[in-house]
Design a protein that fits this description.
single chain, 29% helix, 3 domains, Uridine Diphospho-n-acetylenolpyruvylglucosamine Reductase, domain 3, Vanillyl-alcohol Oxidase, Chain A, domain 3, alpha+beta, eight-stranded antiparallel β-sheet, globular, five-stranded antiparallel β-sheet, 480 residues
């Protein structure tokens, strides 16, 4: 900031004007405060999705947990909200409501620390850590984290929403394996919560999203995965109907050791892509299989019988999984949304192919269906936690659906309507098989909180009322 700092006698920022109070804060944190017009303002307020326009009252770039606490206390005194954000994934619902005009956007992306206790198989990560940071720290120790699908996905936001990894069908959602959370609540106080301390807040944070405080650190379990093969099977998009029908039937009897998805891809010509991908329209099956190579071959036989043009499935270490889904390696303008499906009968596959296959006019870059189930079922996850002597899972113990649909396109000048129409048609066609709930991390547009939390919503709202009665903390999907 360029505003002069108030005199040393002005010790109470709540008695100052907004500009003076922010200058007061800027002088007392290790990080920095930016307001509109400051150098670096546009970069600081940007979400990962560059199509999202965030316009907060100010941005605080925190350098440590103490900065987080000071920012929350200052915002509360000024009557402002605080919107915590690390990478800025899934920021659309947050920005759409009011542009954050009455909020401080609290960026935690510089807090990237990762500590690993290999003996206890516990990782402790700071608020801005990304999955690439974690995997780089744990892989040399022969350990695996329940990571997201890309290196630059933020660990905290992903986990607070539940967290679907490539090992999800065997291990459940990532939130189930959190053992402790450091959080600054709306009173500006730092708390360490776990199953014995602030148990209700601990329950709410594990899958309830970021509405209850600013998480400054997470501790979670790591795993030994002795056998892993992963990769993709690829065909021309003209094979979409056959491949998707075969994949759907294949998923009916898979063991929990296999997590997979199928998607239609329409890739633009891009020099960074290999020739077999660049500028092509394809149907792709991606798999992660915790089995020895012989069993992998046995399980994959029905899909390989369709003669894929490319087959990259091979034994690998778990750190390679970050490249499997081929997510963009840097912030990108996009438009997308998701939906959970209770089941995937042949009629649902036909509806999906009609809107995403070779004869559609879809403007989407990717339209995918992920296989859920097994340890992702809430009841199964709760039973497993009890049998293993682990604490009660959080509010998102699992996902009560069989499949997840997600469509996304790259937003460019002139194609906004085409993207919205293509995504709308896709989701409308599979609506008859929609599950009774939605999944927080794949809902990129606002939903009623009942859609995420069902009968647990009132319990969540009681937690919110207890820790943040004036709604200082603001998330992309508030509990109300």
């Amino acid at each position: 900031m360029n505003t002069p700092v108030p005199s040393a006698t002005a010790t109470d920022p709540t008695t100052l004007s907004l500009r003076e109070a922010l200058a007061f804060l800027d002088d007392r944190i290790a990080g920095r405060v930016l307001i509109p017009g400051d150098p670096g303002w546009d970069e600081a307020r940007s979400a990962w999705n560059l199509a999202i326009d965030q316009r907060p009252a100010a941005v605080v770039i925190a350098a440590d947990a103490a900065d987080v606490a000071r920012t929350v206390r200052t915002a509360k005194g000024l009557g402002l909200a605080v919107a915590p954000q690390a990478t800025g994934h899934n920021a659309g619902p947050l920005a759409a409501r009011d542009g954050l005009a009455d909020a401080i956007l609290l960026r935690t992306h510089e807090l990237r620390g990762v500590e690993v206790d290999a003996e206890s198989r516990i990782a402790r990560v700071e608020a801005g850590a990304q999955w690439g940071d974690v995997v780089a720290a744990v892989a040399p120790l022969g350990l695996t984290a329940l990571a997201g699908s890309s290196h630059d996905v933020g660990v905290v936001g992903y986990t607070l929403g539940g967290g679907i990894s490539w090992l999800a069908r065997s291990h459940g959602v990532a939130a189930n394996h959190v053992v402790a959370i450091d959080v600054v609540t709306a009173d500006g106080m730092a708390r360490r919560v776990d199953a014995e301390h602030d148990a209700e807040l601990f329950w709410a944070l594990r899958g309830g999203g970021g509405d209850f405080g600013v998480v400054t650190a997470l501790e979670f379990r790591l795993f030994d995965v002795p056998a892993l093969s992963a990769g993709m099977l690829l065909w021309s998009i003209e094979r979409t109907a056959d491949v998707m029908a075969a994949w759907s039937a294949w998923t009916a009897d898979l063991p929990a050791s296999v997590t997979s998805l199928v998607r239609a891809l329409r890739l633009p010509p891009m020099p960074e892509l290999p020739p077999f991908l660049s500028g092509r329209s394809l149907v792709v099956v991606e798999v992660a299989m915790q089995e020895d190579p012989a069993r992998v071959d046995e399980l994959l036989a029905p899909l390989r019988a369709l003669a894929p043009e490319v087959d990259t499935v091979h034994p690998q270490n778990s750190d390679e999984l970050l490249q499997l889904h081929m997510d963009p390696p840097q912030p990108t303008p996009g438009y997308g949304d998701g939906m959970l499906l209770a089941e995937l009968p042949p009629a649902a596959i036909r509806a999906f192919v009609d809107e995403a296959g070779p004869d559609s006019s879809s403007a989407l870059l990717s339209a995918e269906i992920r296989h859920l189930g097994a340890m992702m079922r809430p009841g199964v996850a709760r039973a497993a936690a009890s049998a293993q002597g682990r604490p009660e899972p959080g509010v998102t113990a699992g996902i009560d659906a069989g499949y997840l649909v997600f469509g996304v396109g790259i937003a460019m000048p002139g194609n906004a309507d085409a993207l919205a129409e293509s995504l709308g048609r896709l989701l409308a066609r599979v609506e008859p098989w929609r599950a009774g709930t939605d999944y927080l991390n794949f809902a990129e547009h606002s939903r009623l909180p009942e859609r995420f939390f069902g009968d647990d919503l009132e319990r969540l709202r009681a937690v919110k009322q207890a820790v943040d009665p004036t709604k200082v903390i603001r998330s992309n999907h508030p509990v109300g």
